[in-house]
Write a structure and sequence with these properties.
Jelly Rolls, Arc Repressor Mutant, subunit A, 2 domains, 5-stranded antiparallel β-sheet, 8 helices
Length: 273
Protein backbone atom coordinates (compact mmCIF):
# COMPACT_ATOMS: atom_id res chain seq x y z
CA UNK A 1 0.00 0.00 0.00
CA UNK A 2 1.48 3.38 -1.01
CA UNK A 3 0.78 6.82 0.31
CA UNK A 4 -1.46 9.23 -1.54
CA UNK A 5 0.32 12.27 -3.02
CA UNK A 6 0.50 15.16 -0.56
CA UNK A 7 -1.90 18.01 -1.06
CA UNK A 8 -0.43 21.16 -2.65
CA UNK A 9 1.65 23.07 -0.13
CA UNK A 10 2.27 26.46 -1.67
CA UNK A 11 -1.12 27.90 -0.82
CA UNK A 12 -1.05 26.61 2.76
CA UNK A 13 2.18 27.75 4.27
CA UNK A 14 5.40 29.66 4.01
CA UNK A 15 8.34 27.74 5.36
CA UNK A 16 11.66 29.15 6.59
CA UNK A 17 14.14 27.16 8.67
CA UNK A 18 17.83 26.87 9.43
CA UNK A 19 19.73 23.60 9.23
CA UNK A 20 22.00 23.49 12.27
CA UNK A 21 23.64 20.43 13.86
CA UNK A 22 24.57 17.63 11.43
CA UNK A 23 24.54 14.24 13.15
CA UNK A 24 25.61 12.06 10.22
CA UNK A 25 25.52 11.33 6.50
CA UNK A 26 25.64 7.64 5.60
CA UNK A 27 25.17 5.38 2.61
CA UNK A 28 23.72 1.91 3.01
CA UNK A 29 24.40 -0.74 0.38
CA UNK A 30 21.58 -3.11 -0.71
CA UNK A 31 20.87 -5.63 2.05
CA UNK A 32 17.82 -7.90 1.86
CA UNK A 33 17.99 -8.37 5.63
CA UNK A 34 17.93 -4.66 6.49
CA UNK A 35 15.09 -3.76 8.84
CA UNK A 36 14.25 -1.53 11.79
CA UNK A 37 11.36 -1.78 14.23
CA UNK A 38 9.73 1.04 16.17
CA UNK A 39 12.80 3.25 15.77
CA UNK A 40 12.70 6.96 16.59
CA UNK A 41 15.53 9.51 16.54
CA UNK A 42 14.69 11.83 19.42
CA UNK A 43 17.35 14.44 18.61
CA UNK A 44 17.36 14.81 14.83
CA UNK A 45 15.25 15.07 11.70
CA UNK A 46 16.12 12.50 9.01
CA UNK A 47 16.13 12.74 5.22
CA UNK A 48 16.69 9.53 3.22
CA UNK A 49 17.08 9.26 -0.54
CA UNK A 50 16.47 5.94 -2.30
CA UNK A 51 19.23 5.44 -4.89
CA UNK A 52 17.92 2.09 -6.11
CA UNK A 53 15.78 -0.84 -5.05
CA UNK A 54 12.70 -0.84 -2.85
CA UNK A 55 11.77 -0.56 0.83
CA UNK A 56 8.60 -0.60 2.92
CA UNK A 57 7.89 1.85 5.74
CA UNK A 58 5.15 2.18 8.33
CA UNK A 59 4.83 5.53 10.08
CA UNK A 60 1.89 6.83 12.11
CA UNK A 61 -0.29 4.03 10.79
CA UNK A 62 0.44 4.82 7.12
CA UNK A 63 2.31 2.41 4.85
CA UNK A 64 4.77 3.75 2.28
CA UNK A 65 6.47 1.93 -0.56
CA UNK A 66 9.85 3.51 -1.34
CA UNK A 67 11.37 3.15 -4.81
CA UNK A 68 14.34 4.64 -6.65
CA UNK A 69 14.30 8.44 -6.68
CA UNK A 70 12.00 8.83 -3.66
CA UNK A 71 12.83 11.00 -0.63
CA UNK A 72 11.68 10.25 2.92
CA UNK A 73 11.31 13.00 5.52
CA UNK A 74 11.15 11.71 9.10
CA UNK A 75 10.48 14.33 11.79
CA UNK A 76 12.26 14.23 15.11
CA UNK A 77 10.93 11.46 17.39
CA UNK A 78 8.74 9.98 14.63
CA UNK A 79 8.56 6.25 15.27
CA UNK A 80 8.80 4.08 12.19
CA UNK A 81 9.15 0.44 11.21
CA UNK A 82 10.84 -0.42 7.91
CA UNK A 83 12.44 -3.18 5.87
CA UNK A 84 14.15 -3.69 2.53
CA UNK A 85 12.28 -5.52 -0.16
CA UNK A 86 13.92 -8.97 0.00
CA UNK A 87 13.86 -9.35 -3.79
CA UNK A 88 15.01 -5.81 -4.59
CA UNK A 89 16.68 -4.34 -1.47
CA UNK A 90 17.08 -0.60 -1.43
CA UNK A 91 20.33 1.34 -1.46
CA UNK A 92 20.02 4.72 0.19
CA UNK A 93 21.79 7.81 1.46
CA UNK A 94 20.47 9.41 4.63
CA UNK A 95 21.34 12.39 6.80
CA UNK A 96 20.25 13.40 10.29
CA UNK A 97 20.22 17.05 11.34
CA UNK A 98 18.50 19.66 13.50
CA UNK A 99 16.08 22.30 12.23
CA UNK A 100 15.49 25.66 13.92
CA UNK A 101 13.64 28.78 12.87
CA UNK A 102 15.63 31.90 11.84
CA UNK A 103 15.38 33.30 15.38
CA UNK A 104 16.97 30.06 16.68
CA UNK A 105 13.84 29.22 18.67
CA UNK A 106 12.65 25.62 19.08
CA UNK A 107 10.90 24.55 15.91
CA UNK A 108 7.68 22.52 16.04
CA UNK A 109 7.87 19.73 13.51
CA UNK A 110 6.56 21.17 10.23
CA UNK A 111 3.54 19.92 8.33
CA UNK A 112 4.81 21.63 5.17
CA UNK A 113 7.03 18.69 4.23
CA UNK A 114 5.42 15.37 3.27
CA UNK A 115 6.78 12.11 4.61
CA UNK A 116 7.29 10.75 1.09
CA UNK A 117 8.06 12.63 -2.12
CA UNK A 118 8.15 10.50 -5.26
CA UNK A 119 10.34 10.73 -8.35
CA UNK A 120 13.02 13.19 -7.21
CA UNK A 121 16.09 11.70 -8.98
CA UNK A 122 16.80 14.66 -11.23
CA UNK A 123 16.09 17.18 -8.48
CA UNK A 124 17.96 15.95 -5.43
CA UNK A 125 20.45 13.21 -6.37
CA UNK A 126 23.31 15.73 -6.75
CA UNK A 127 22.56 17.20 -3.31
CA UNK A 128 22.77 13.83 -1.58
CA UNK A 129 25.99 13.11 -3.47
CA UNK A 130 27.34 16.46 -2.25
CA UNK A 131 26.36 15.65 1.35
CA UNK A 132 28.06 12.27 1.27
CA UNK A 133 31.22 13.55 -0.43
CA UNK A 134 31.53 16.45 2.01
CA UNK A 135 30.94 14.24 5.07
CA UNK A 136 33.50 11.68 3.91
CA UNK A 137 36.09 14.33 2.97
CA UNK A 138 35.77 16.35 6.20
CA UNK A 139 37.42 19.47 4.77
CA UNK A 140 37.23 22.80 6.62
CA UNK A 141 33.90 23.79 5.06
CA UNK A 142 32.22 20.40 4.85
CA UNK A 143 29.43 21.20 7.34
CA UNK A 144 28.50 24.35 5.43
CA UNK A 145 28.32 22.33 2.22
CA UNK A 146 26.08 19.73 3.86
CA UNK A 147 23.77 22.35 5.37
CA UNK A 148 23.42 24.02 1.99
CA UNK A 149 22.63 20.73 0.25
CA UNK A 150 20.01 19.84 2.88
CA UNK A 151 18.38 23.26 2.53
CA UNK A 152 18.25 22.92 -1.26
CA UNK A 153 16.76 19.43 -0.91
CA UNK A 154 14.03 20.68 1.44
CA UNK A 155 13.25 23.49 -0.98
CA UNK A 156 12.91 21.01 -3.87
CA UNK A 157 10.57 18.83 -1.81
CA UNK A 158 8.37 21.77 -0.85
CA UNK A 159 8.32 23.01 -4.45
CA UNK A 160 7.35 19.53 -5.69
CA UNK A 161 4.34 19.65 -3.38
CA UNK A 162 2.97 22.67 -5.23
CA UNK A 163 1.93 20.40 -8.10
CA UNK A 164 2.61 16.77 -7.20
CA UNK A 165 0.33 15.39 -9.85
CA UNK A 166 2.09 17.23 -12.68
CA UNK A 167 5.64 15.97 -13.11
CA UNK A 168 6.91 17.37 -16.43
CA UNK A 169 7.65 14.59 -18.92
CA UNK A 170 11.19 15.84 -19.39
CA UNK A 171 11.90 15.29 -15.67
CA UNK A 172 10.83 11.67 -16.00
CA UNK A 173 13.19 11.27 -18.96
CA UNK A 174 16.09 12.92 -17.17
CA UNK A 175 15.35 10.94 -14.02
CA UNK A 176 15.85 7.70 -15.96
CA UNK A 177 19.17 9.01 -17.27
CA UNK A 178 20.44 10.04 -13.81
CA UNK A 179 19.53 6.59 -12.49
CA UNK A 180 21.43 4.97 -15.37
CA UNK A 181 24.46 7.11 -14.57
CA UNK A 182 24.27 6.23 -10.86
CA UNK A 183 24.06 2.53 -11.65
CA UNK A 184 27.02 2.74 -14.06
CA UNK A 185 29.20 5.30 -12.31
CA UNK A 186 32.40 3.68 -13.59
CA UNK A 187 31.47 4.37 -17.21
CA UNK A 188 31.56 7.67 -19.08
CA UNK A 189 28.69 8.54 -21.40
CA UNK A 190 28.75 11.15 -24.12
CA UNK A 191 25.96 13.67 -24.46
CA UNK A 192 25.06 12.05 -27.77
CA UNK A 193 24.60 8.64 -26.12
CA UNK A 194 22.44 10.04 -23.32
CA UNK A 195 20.40 12.19 -25.71
CA UNK A 196 19.74 9.11 -27.84
CA UNK A 197 18.39 7.24 -24.82
CA UNK A 198 15.84 10.05 -24.37
CA UNK A 199 15.06 10.40 -28.08
CA UNK A 200 16.24 14.01 -27.91
CA UNK A 201 18.70 16.03 -29.92
CA UNK A 202 22.00 16.67 -28.08
CA UNK A 203 21.30 20.40 -27.79
CA UNK A 204 17.78 19.85 -26.42
CA UNK A 205 19.09 17.21 -24.03
CA UNK A 206 21.77 19.58 -22.71
CA UNK A 207 19.14 22.21 -21.98
CA UNK A 208 16.76 19.83 -20.21
CA UNK A 209 19.49 18.07 -18.24
CA UNK A 210 20.89 21.35 -16.94
CA UNK A 211 17.40 22.57 -16.08
CA UNK A 212 16.62 19.38 -14.16
CA UNK A 213 19.90 18.86 -12.30
CA UNK A 214 21.67 22.22 -12.26
CA UNK A 215 24.71 20.56 -13.87
CA UNK A 216 25.92 19.55 -17.28
CA UNK A 217 25.98 15.82 -18.02
CA UNK A 218 29.77 15.87 -17.70
CA UNK A 219 29.68 17.61 -14.32
CA UNK A 220 27.01 15.21 -13.09
CA UNK A 221 29.10 12.17 -14.03
CA UNK A 222 32.17 13.69 -12.40
CA UNK A 223 30.29 14.19 -9.13
CA UNK A 224 29.04 10.60 -9.22
CA UNK A 225 32.54 9.25 -9.79
CA UNK A 226 34.09 11.39 -7.06
CA UNK A 227 31.35 10.35 -4.62
CA UNK A 228 32.06 6.68 -5.28
CA UNK A 229 35.81 7.27 -5.09
CA UNK A 230 35.32 8.85 -1.65
CA UNK A 231 33.45 5.76 -0.53
CA UNK A 232 36.26 3.52 -1.78
CA UNK A 233 38.98 5.66 -0.18
CA UNK A 234 37.20 5.88 3.17
CA UNK A 235 36.66 2.11 3.29
CA UNK A 236 40.36 1.48 3.87
CA UNK A 237 40.34 -1.19 1.15
CA UNK A 238 41.58 0.99 -1.74
CA UNK A 239 44.60 3.19 -2.30
CA UNK A 240 44.32 6.29 -4.50
CA UNK A 241 45.14 4.48 -7.74
CA UNK A 242 42.72 1.64 -7.03
CA UNK A 243 39.92 4.05 -6.06
CA UNK A 244 40.49 6.04 -9.24
CA UNK A 245 40.22 2.95 -11.44
CA UNK A 246 37.23 1.52 -9.55
CA UNK A 247 35.30 4.77 -10.02
CA UNK A 248 36.04 4.95 -13.74
CA UNK A 249 39.19 7.07 -14.09
CA UNK A 250 42.02 5.86 -16.31
CA UNK A 251 44.38 8.71 -15.41
CA UNK A 252 45.17 8.85 -11.68
CA UNK A 253 46.74 12.31 -12.03
CA UNK A 254 43.57 13.73 -13.56
CA UNK A 255 41.57 11.95 -10.85
CA UNK A 256 43.65 13.60 -8.12
CA UNK A 257 43.27 17.00 -9.77
CA UNK A 258 39.48 16.65 -10.13
CA UNK A 259 39.07 15.24 -6.61
CA UNK A 260 40.84 18.25 -5.10
CA UNK A 261 38.84 20.62 -7.29
CA UNK A 262 35.45 19.19 -6.28
CA UNK A 263 36.06 18.34 -2.63
CA UNK A 264 38.77 20.74 -1.54
CA UNK A 265 41.06 17.96 -0.27
CA UNK A 266 43.56 15.58 -1.85
CA UNK A 267 42.31 12.00 -2.20
CA UNK A 268 45.28 10.74 -0.19
CA UNK A 269 43.88 12.64 2.83
CA UNK A 270 40.76 10.47 2.77
CA UNK A 271 42.50 7.10 2.67
CA UNK A 272 41.82 5.27 5.93
CA UNK A 273 44.96 3.70 7.34
Amino acid sequence: MSAHPPEPLGARTSYDVLVTRIEYVIERKPNPNWRIRDFANHTSTILAYCVSGRAHYLMDGTAYEITAGDVLFMPTAASHTASSDPDDPWRFVSTAFTLTDPALKPLPEPDAIPVLTKGMQADVAPYFQEMYTAWAGKDAGHLLRIRGAIALTLNKIISAGDAPERIPPYRRRIGKVTQLLADNYDRSYSVEELAGLCNLSPSHFRTLFKRATGMTATQYQQHLKITKATEFLASGEYNVTEAARASGFRDVYYFSYLYKKLTGVNPSAVVRS
